[in-house]
Amino acid sequence: MKKLDVTGDICPIPVLKTKRALEELKEGEELEVVGDYKPALENIKRFAENNGYKVVSYEETENGFRIVIRK
Predict the structure, then answer these.
(1) Which of 11, 13, 25, 55 is flagged as catalytic?
(2) Catalytic-residue membership of 67
(3) pLDDT in tens, 45-58
(4) Is the model's pTM score more than 0.90?
């Protein structure tokens, strides 16, 4: 699983970085995105769902969020 840390970034940067990272994955691979800007979680989730990716799991954490997306 590839990991992407967008800590310190605010929208739209986390979504753009997620898009770029997903484009580099092979079909069936997963990307874990973590960050500290909680509004980005919903934006990343919406982007993934609207572009044919599978959101495997997501959660708000004490310090931010974590989301796993399958290409």
Answers:
(1) 11
(2) no
(3) 999 999 999 999 99
(4) yes
